[in-house]
Structures are given as C-alpha cells and as structure tokens.
Amino acid sequence: MTRAHIIGAGLAGLSAAVQLAQKGVGITLYEQANQAGGRARSFHDSHLDRTIDNGNHLLLSGNYSALDFLAIINASGRLIGPDNARFDFADLETDDRWTINFNRGPVPLWVLYEQSRVPGTSMMDYVAGLKLLTAGNRSVASLFGDQGQMYRRFWEPFSVAVLNTEPNEAVARLLLPVIRETLAKGAEYSKPLVARNGLSDTFVDPALKWLERRKADIRFGQRITSLENDGKQITAIKTARTTEIVEKGDLVVVATPPWVTPTLVEGVEAPDEYAPIVNLHFQVDGFSEAKTDTPMLGLVGSPAHWLFVRDDIISVTVSAAYGLVEKSAREIAAIIWPDVAKVFELDAKSTPPVRVIKEQRATFRTTPQQLNRRAPAKTPFKNLALAGDWTDTGLPATIEGAIRSGVTAVKTLQR
Ligand SMILES: Cc1cc2nc3c(=O)[nH]c(=O)nc-3n(C[C@H](O)[C@H](O)[C@H](O)COP(=O)(O)OP(=O)(O)OC[C@H]3O[C@@H](n4cnc5c(N)ncnc54)[C@H](O)[C@@H]3O)c2cc1C
Predict the structure, then answer these.
(1) 85-91 and 226-229 as β-strands: parallel, antiparallel, unpaired?
(2) Is the full-model pTM beyond 0.90?
(3) What phi and psi, each to the nearest 5 degrees, are found at residue 360?
(4) Domain shared by 395 and 264, yes or no
(5) What separation in Å is there between the alpha carbon of 10 and the centre of ligand 1?
(6) Which of 121, 198, 261, 301 yields a CA-CA distance of 20 to 30 A from 206?
(7) Which residues line ligand 1 (CB under 6 A)?
(8) What is the tens place of the pLDDT at every residue in 102-134?
(9) CA 57 to ligand 1: nearest atom
(10) Are residue 172 and residue 307 in the same domain, yes or no?
(11) Quick one: pLDDT band at residue 294, thresholds 50, 70, 90?
(12) Residue 24 C-alpha to ligand 1 middle, in angstroms?
C-alpha cells in the first residue's frame, strides 16, 4: 500500500496528511518538536496557570481551506465568532471609537453612509482601493499613504495584520486575493473567527486524533536532517540516528518552514527574511468577555494592534514588531499595558501577571524580493512536493495559506 511521509506537523503538514489519509494512503508524520502545530500552537503557561496560544490567530469566514480542513477533522464548531462581520476599532490618539460592519452580498453598501464608514473618510477613499488592481510591486504606503485617515485607520492596520510587514515595504497586491475571497464577497465571508479554546484544541488535537484513528504513525522528536535521492525520486529520509527507506510508490511532502526546507531539498529557494510578531497575554483577575462589548478590538495610534479577550486573559498582538522584539518582556509589558488599561478602563499603574511571547520568524517579509523566492509545490523529484505558508500559494503567510498549501502539495503528487 502507498505510504506518505510528511515532514513537519505544522498546519501545512497536518493538512497534507489529512488529505492523503482521506484517500486511504498510510501516513508517517515526522515532527522535530514534541508537539504539533508549529507556529500555531497552544501550551500550558505555568506563570499564568492558563492554556494560551503562542499568538492570537484571526481567521475570516471566507477562509474556505481552513473551514474545509476543520469539517474533515470534525472540528468545525471549534472556530467561533460573531453572527455578523463586525470589527470594532479604537483610536487611542483621538479617543474615537468606530465599528465596521460589512453588509451581506458583494455590493459594499456600508461605504455609502457616513455613519457606517471609518470616521474621517469619504466614499471616494474606498473607490481608491481599486488601485490595488494595478499596484504592481508598489508598497501599501506608496499606494495609499496619502489617504489620511483612510490610510491610518484602514489600510495600515489591515495590511500590517495580513502581511506582517512594515507598510512602506509590504507589497500591496498580496492583499488582493485576501480581499477577493473575503471582504469583497460580503458579510458571509468576512466574519472574524477565533479558536474557541485555543489553536491546538481547534486545529491540532482534532487533526492528530483523526489521523490516529486512521492508524497514522506520528513521530514526535524526529528532526529530519537530510533526504536521499536517486536523481528522480526521494529514496530515504534521515534523522541524526535513523534512516527510513522510502519505498517505490511512496510519497513525500516536506512541510517545514522556509529556513529549513532549503537545507533538506537541494535547489529550493525560499524567503530568507522574516518579520516578528509579539504577543502579550495579561491575566486580569475578575475580567471576562462579559465585562466588555468589544472582545476583539483593533487599535490605531498605539504600539498594540489587536486585543482579544478570552476568559480572564486579555491578549495583545503586535505585528511587524521590530521596535519591540529586542526589548525585555518587562519593558514590552510596560509599554503595552497602559493602552490596554485605557481601553478597558483598568488600572494603568499596576501591570497584571503577563506572558510575553516573541516569535522572531512569525512569517516571511512580504517584499517583492521575498515574494520572488516563494517555491512551487512541485519539485523535480516525482514523489516529492513542498508545502508551507511560504510556498507559492498566492496568499500571504497565514493559516489559510498553510492549509491550502497542504491541499496543493497533495494534488501535485497525484498528477
Ligand atoms: C504569533 C503569530 C501570529 C499569527 N497570526 C496569524 C493570524 O492571525 N492569522 C493567520 O491566518 N495566520 C497567522 N499567523 C501565521 C500562521 O501561524 C502560519 O502561517 C502557519 O501556522 C504556518 O504553518 P506551516 O505549517 O506552514 O509552518 P510551521 O507552523 O512553521 O510548521 C512547520 C513544522 O515543521 C517542523 N519542523 C521544522 N524543521 C523540521 C525538521 N527538520 N524535521 C521535522 N520537523 C521539522 C516545525 O517544528 C513545525 O512544527 C501567525 C503566526 C504567528 C507566529
């Protein structure tokens, strides 16, 4: 029987494994860490005594690859969000608050009415979004930077969240596929979604269980160090101590991050510049979603970008966090907490217990040079395909991109 060897149990590897197992292919999954999930994982934090995610992850209801994946592994209900496509914002410089509430259907009627637009913007500001269609390699800032509040309150936060790159460097056109699959299709496709009980509970544990039920051989603590080939096919997979023979007819998917895959597969180019994300998880005694009508809030005029409330944890995301990532956890918390306290009317002077997580290589930098380095799923080896958020999915480095890359890798192997 055909066996598939999947290297890397992040969401791209899990997605490929699930696709192949669904077709009755036997799975061996190799993961260097002692847990799956890669850059989207949960863990128990002993300092806070809570299970937290390495970073808040936001999806949209138009992320069909992610939703299909969850449906297969029987975990659809674990991604939750409001009934409408509502996004609340606060501007901490001006104290303005507003809500963008996308309407149903592809015609954006909400931009017609001043009270439903971003404050300080006109209808023509939204029409200018069409510049994306001919943006070439222009950055978000060079395309929209002269648009005043429309830039500051919409394009800048939106692009930093999606592209995780400074707006004066980030390639604007990579926003297009995201907009096409979500915002441009209306509210049904634009609802914010978050993991109900954390990323592992939503994406990872159900996938592992589903694979185990199909007798997948899941090997943690196995760092693959090299692949052998005969010029046409991958023939063996090696760790420092073991060699696994890849039998004739077997398949291999390498779903490792961009800084690893080129070390395993000769001739593969991958993005080699990365952008950090800093997440802070504040544990606030007595606080909960019930104490706020904005459990998810975008910030403008603050070093913090997004706030998420789950139980008594207020989590903060700072994307493209170059200015913060080199600072100590204590310094970062001292910079961020006063803004969080201001938003939720808490005591700015006493910082609650906090865990600061710095992901130095959260995603690749979305610059023209780095986009050129994205590799296709297909390789010169007949039985090998690549997956990962950094492969040439046409999407930014996101959960949706990672999961779709696993689907594409499997399709490539079946051609
Ligand atoms: C803090 C943070 C916030 C984010 N926010 C969002 C968000 O809001 N929305 C969103 O959609 N996306 C977000 N992302 C991006 C998203 O997490 C990633 O795009 C996605 O998880 C990448 O999955 P992947 O499988 O491609 O790679 P990875 O998750 O990196 O998986 C690769 C796996 O390969 C393993 N591996 C590496 N080398 C070897 C080896 N030699 N042998 C065996 N195994 C190996 C690794 O341990 C890892 O488990 C965020 C990322 C971070 C870090």
Answers:
(1) unpaired
(2) yes
(3) -65, -35
(4) yes
(5) 5
(6) 261
(7) 7-13, 30-33, 38-40, 54-55, 57-59, 223-224, 255-257, 260, 277, 279, 359, 362-363, 388-389, 397-400, 402
(8) 889 888 888 888 888 899 999 999 989 999 999
(9) 8
(10) no
(11) confident
(12) 26
Please tell me whether residue 411 adopts helix, strand or coil conformation. Answer: helix
Query: Is the residue at 70 inside a domain?
Result: no
Counting the structural domains of the chain, the total is 3
Give a yes or no: residue 86 inside a domain. Answer: no
What value does the mean pLDDT take over residues 128-144? 95
With respect to residue 56, please indicate whether it lies within any of the assigned structural domains. no
Domain that holds residue 111: 102-184
Residue 261, domain member (yes or no)? yes
φ, ψ of residue 144 in degrees (nearest 5): -120, 0
List, in order, residues 6 or more apart from 4 with CB less than 8 Å away: 16, 17, 20, 25, 26, 27, 28, 250, 251, 252, 253
Q: Which two tokens stand for residue 278?
A: 């800093």
Task: State the pLDDT at residue 43.
Answer: 97
Are 128 and 147 in contact by the 8 Å Cβ rule? The answer is yes
Specify whether 15 is located in the same domain as 125.
Answer: no
